[in-house]
Write a structure and sequence with these properties.
This is DUF1449 family protein. Keywords: Membrane, Transmembrane, Transmembrane helix. There is one protein chain. The chain folds into 2 domains: about 5-40 and about 65-145, no CATH class; about 150-215, OB fold (Dihydrolipoamide Acetyltransferase, E2P). It is built from 6 helices and 7 strands, in the order H-H-E-E-H-H-H-H-E-E-E-E-E. It has helices at about 5-10, 15-35, 70-75, 85-105, 110-130, 135-140, and strands at about 40-45, 50-55, 155-160, 170-175, 180-185, 195-205, 210-215. Helix 2 (about 15-35) runs antiparallel to helix 4 (about 85-105) and helix 4 (about 85-105) crosses helix 5 (about 110-130).
Amino acid sequence: MTFQEFLNIAFSPVNTVLSVLLGLSVVYWLFTIITGLDIDVGLHSDLDIGADTHVPDGHFHTPDHDPSAWMHFLKFLNLDIVPITYFLTLSLLMTWLGSFYLNYFIPLPTWLGILILFPLFIAGMLLTKVILKPLNPFFKEINHKGEVSYAFLGREGRLKSSIQDDKIGMMEVFIGSDPMTLMVRSQDGTKLEHGTRVMIVDEDLDKRIYYVQKSMRY
């Protein structure tokens, strides 16, 4: 393969977006390595906390009516353990490689090449899960800035979704200036509305589920 062939395939209508995103990922990781800065904010799932996010407002959003299905999906991909920046970068790389070599060996119409990106991305996520699985114990022990996990018992914050009975919701707390999102349940099953200020009063150390009640401070 010549360099010109490489460029033609990498920046074909099918692969251009993937190539640009992959290039941005490389720039991000180079910036992180050189400066030592990392724009991470914690996401804690309902089963085992420890994944950071790189979404615009610093955390995942789930539907108020039932966030558990989404969280189970994250759990399946090990995103309750693995930093999402690691996961997405590697998934993107797997998808790009699959699309690149598929179009190199079997030239496809543009519409079909774009359509195939979706199953390729799914396959890339599953392969990434397998590749990163040996590192799960490491990611469990530290958060994504290399520090010991924070103690949240007694901290206050606001609910990002309504909870009651055994329903799992989301709570935002601040550690210094860093917002972190935890998965929480109502301590006594009482309904707590979105936006309510609550306090963490108990936790499940194994599953890292946090139990909250309405804060007495307003």
